[in-house]
Amino acid sequence: MDTPDTSIGFGQLGLAPAVAQAVEDLGYETPTPVQLQCIPHLLAGRDLLGQAQTGTGKTAAFALPLLSRVDPTQRGPQILVLTPTRELALQVAEAFQGYAQHLKGFLVLPIYGGQAYGLQLSQLKRNPQVIVGTPGRVMDHLKRGTLALDVLKTLVLDEADEMLNMGFAEDIDWIFEQTPPGRQVALFSATMPAGIRRVAQTRLSDPVEIRVTADSETVDTIDQHHCVVTRFHKLDVLTRILELEPFDGMLVFVRTKHATVELADKLKAHGFAAEPLNGDMSQEMRERTVERLKQGQLDILVATDVAARGLDVERLSHVVNYDIPTDPSAYVHRIGRTGRAGRAGRAILLVEPRERGLLRAIERTIRRSVPAMEPPSASQLSESRIDRFTAELRKTLTEQDLDFFYRLVARLGTEQEMELMDIAAALAYLTQRERPLDVKADLPRPAATRPERPERGPRSEGRDEGRPRPARDGDRGAPRPEGAREDGRDRPRPQGRGSEGLTSYRIEVGHQHGATPREIVGAIANESGLEGRYIGRIDIRDDHSLVDLPEGMPREIFNHLKRVYVRGQALRISLADGSAAGTRRGGGETTGSPRPDQPSYERKPREPGFHQERRRKRTDPS
Ligand code: AMP
Description:
The chain is an alpha/beta fold. It has helices spanning 17-26, 33-43, 58-69, 86-99, 117-124, 135-144, 160-165, 169-177, 194-203, 234-244, 257-269, 283-295, 328-335, 356-366, 378-399, 403-415, 420-431, 517-528, 555-562, 610-617; strands at residues 48-51, 79-82, 108-111, 130-133, 154-157, 184-189, 208-211, 222-228, 249-253, 274-277, 300-303, 316-321, 345-351, 502-507, 538-540, 545-550, 565-566, 569-570, 574-575.
């Protein structure tokens, strides 16, 4: 099995000091296998053909060494990353920005179809050193002369198989022709079909081949489940699991040192006996923490892989992978911390929708499926709380001397003329105000986001940037909702409904909260069921942002979005023009039936999730 080599740290990989500092700041402890394999070769300037999935840490595997080789004082694109979708472009650009945070005067620019040309042009004029873009839009800029690749050092193809599936082969070929001779190429692909091999043979020069594999291993003694959940609901799901699962000791795995502290603090705030365990703590401190777990003074440790290495505590009945491990073999090591000494163990894996590919890689590694589980429902929580409440009542009745209280209730009955049932109901109410017995809301189900292999349907993400496509008239990009226009921040947005297909909304999270376009797109897409590609311009201002969304947002989704959080801020969405919003279902303000290619706030049929639930329950349509 491909055991992660935890003996090699980032410090030994030869990264530029400013880049190594960013890694340290981000709290990464050790390189993932794909990083260990790629970084030295990319640093040495070699071409590389890498087979690795999203979630393995592959972005850092190319970003860290390539950033270590750029010259921050030289303007113009030195690194060009091609990605199949706008979401991935944003995600990779954001990762680059994080890794380049200590490089002075350094600019990273995502460019993708559907975004205003005007905005992209003004950003391109600032000569960013890294461009991350979808092939169609990159090609357009090259053809218009608004992007030049004469100082390019490295071209990266990310998720190359997906780009070929989406019909980008010719665009990519054309882009290759525009790159200077001798540039380095790194090609990453989750699979290695013949098409990718062909690109590698024709375009890469003596490439190193990297494959992140893990031999199969079975872990039969541990009961394993996974739960798909958006990043925004992970904490809710975890606290619900903690409330319902009978556990003795629990180990919760996260990716970074910072996350151990953050999550442990949040769990403590929820009343759980939790502490972090990470590589920043001294050996003595770690030992003391583990001892407290053994003694039962603590129930939950929130740990990174490194800190939990070799941990052997009989009491550990549960392992929760709060962050899915970046390589499948780490999963086996993590869950092996439970089920010690012949005891039963249980492992729960939280999977964000975009990480489903990594779940499948884990299943291949352990040669069995990890069945899905539902997050605990509102009614399960209520039942469990009522059971505990009932047990506490019984215990109090049998164990406590209640003479004073019997007299008090009798007095309330006679002096205040209160019914005993009324008194009991009011007292029950008072005891549960912090933690309601009647839990109302189920957590929303994550929308089925981008499939791992793109569907070949007519509206796949970025599809119209690929082949076949209609002749360009010079200013076309990714699909836009009917009537949407590609104007930039500089133009006033349509405030009315219906005329141009998009409506401008204001959300109360902005630069000062550290919000990024990706987080905003992710939150709105996951919570509204709207596909990310229909989300238009995002203009992040200081304390708020403006977001263009297709017209006709159902009122219940509008109301729900008000309470969605990004960076700890409730979005409190409102129409940018301050008028009332939300379309009534059935009694709609929109006319006619939606066309099949029109954006929909619930494109994918969902299993009963909050949308359906809420609609069924809605009694007052106003
Ligand atoms: P990727 O496969 O590039 O999508 O990365 C998956 C996730 O792993 C991202 O959230 C990264 O921030 C995180 N990550 C990448 N490398 C490391 C590392 N060495 N240690 C901890 N987390 C990492």
